Each structure stands twice: as C-alpha cells, then as structure tokens.
Amino acid sequence: MKQSLESIKVLDLTHMLAGPYTTMILADLGAEVVKIEQPKTGDITRNLLKDDPKYSLDGIGAYHLTLGRNKKSVELDLKSDQGLKLFKELVSVADVVVDNFSQGVTKRLGIDHENLKDVNPKIITCSISGFGDTEVNRPAYDNLIQGYAGAMSITGTDKENPVKSGIPIADLGAGLYAVIGILSAIHSREKNNSGEHVDISMLDTQVSLLTYMATMHFLSGESPEPIGNQHMNHVPFNSYRTSDGFIQIGVVAEDFWPSLIKALDLKKLDTEENKLRIGRLKNREYIDQAVQEVFITNTTKHWLKILQKHRVPCGPINTLSETFKDEDLLKRNMIVEVLQESGASARMPGNPVKISNHDEEFRRSPKLGEHTSEIFKNWLDKDISVDQD
User: Fold this and answer.
1) Which residues are known catalytic residues?
2) pTM score, two decimals?
3) Does the pLDDT at position 386 exceed 80?
4) Is 2 exposed, middle or buried (0-12, 13-18, 19+ CB in 10 A)?
C-alpha cells in the first residue's frame, strides 16, 4: 500500500478536537500515529458520547469513531518516572510529537521541544493552543476563539444576535494549519537535518481566515456587520425559499447577470443601472424581492436545472442526509465504511486529499492500550506490557 506519509512516526498527546483532527489527517495520509493515553481512563475524546445510544456504536462515541481512526493506542502515565522514561525512548525514534495541552503543561512534564530535542535532535514538535506559546492564562474553546477572532460579529443576520459557525471552525482550522506546519517542518528537516517546533494558535488561524475582510477593515477603519447569506460586494448573492426548500445563487461576475435575467424571465430588472455591480448594490432589496417572488413558485430541483442550463452559479441548501447522497461525493470515496471489531460498520467522511497513485485505508479506532506491546516491540525491540485491568 502506497501512502505519502507511510514512513513517518507520530506520537499523539492530543485530546478533544483540534489536536485529534490534526493527527487524524496525518494518519489518513499514512503516518503511523500512536495515541499516548493515560492508563485506565484514556484521553477525554474516547469517552465523549460513548453512552449515547443515538451517537455511538458498540460503546464507542462518534468523536472517537471518527478522530481515532487509523491510529494506534499506547498506555503511558507521563506523570510517573517510568512512564516519562518510556515516552522519551519512543521520542528517540519518532518523527513528530503533537499536543494541545494547556499552556505550560509540556514544560512542567519535561516534554517540551527544548527537552525532547536533547533526546532526538531531529524531533518535530507541534503544540496547538488557544493563543500560542506567548499566552498563559486565557482558556480556549472553539466558540470562545470564534468570539475573540471577530468571526461571530460577522456571522448571522444582524449585529444584535451574533452567531457561531455551525461547524467548529476554530478547532478544525487550527488542526488544518497544524498539519501544514508539521509537513513544512518535515520538509525543512530534509534540508537542515534538525527538528523544529511548530506553534499553532487557534486565534492566529481564525484571524488568518478573515483574509480580505481584515484588509478591508484596515483600509476603511470600519467593522463589518453580519448580512446573513448576502455578500457585501455582489448582488444577487443570497439564499431564497423555493416551494419545497431553499436555493442559493451568486452573481459574482457581470456576465452572469444577463444569464440570470433570461433564466428567470425577469425583464423588469433588465435596466441600464442593474447591468453594473454598483447599480445592483444600490437596488439590492428590490432585486432580492423580485428573485424571491420567482423562486417560490417552483421546486429547488426545477430551478437548479434551469439555472445550470444558463450557467448561473447556483446550488441547494442540503440537509446532511441529502449531502451524503451527492454523486460526485460518493464517486470520490468521501463517505467510507469503517469496519469495527464487532463486524458492524461506521459510516463517516473520507479523506479529501486525493493523491494520484496513492492508496486509502480506514481502520477502526483503537481500544485503549491496544498496541502498547506492539509499538514498543516494533519501535524499540523492547518487550513491555501495561496492566489494563
């Protein structure tokens, strides 16, 4: 089986979402990811939803089913002298160590980059935290970071009711940037023959995702307000009700406008002023109302067919069950079946990184300590077991 990171060994000290998502991606790309977990209890992620009959399978919650896939598990108590000694032995032959502990924990345990590079000068460490290595006191969770970063102030329909993203974008964004940082450090090591520390701040990653909106603020001095599903620069660009659901359109180039007029037979909007974006911005409310009056008369499927025929950017607002039936998604192996020890299968999203001539594999999430003996034998030629009773 050919996978891009198949020779990379990763020690995973993460929990909750941002860190486990990082290491899940690395595992999906072929890295040997080993979760280092507290004996008896494991990391908190494996316990989330495990007792919820709707969101668990065989006593394993949706979080661990998904984020733990393709990983292995070793039980080690890093607070004990023996556990710390064994961990550093693993570090001596590892490539990457990833954590998302609270600030100061790695230094207190003696497993920060400065300590670990004495064990292995080529080790790459990655720490994911709310505010980076410079901050000590502030707690950080996804919703808090969305608020700190200003993202919630521009999400929703009005400034009196800020709304967080429907997906935990602060956690997931940090995870993606962590992967980018780790892969960059691996590439750098090929040239410099030394490891590096990757410092990922959730706040940094969210501010980075503001992109041009932040630059617009710096240029104008104005703080944008939420405008729902509209766009500050384009009209019509919105979601609309149909007779059986919703549809979205986005007229982001001038040549889409006449195509929309023709597709919806909206001759009353075909004016000289509306031919240009600046005119349509002025008439936003009237245009949205006219477009809405047309869409409500038929189904989403009906309008999608017409708009696509006229090459007008459009799309539905799917429920998850509708999304997971998308033909292109299914063709690309983006809904996968992961076989569990019981013989049951758990469906979940696949790996969106498609690399030519590479293989994909999705193995079940590990039981606590399942690979302790295997990892010490294979990595260190050491016979060891941890009492799991």
Assistant:
1) 231
2) 0.94
3) no
4) exposed
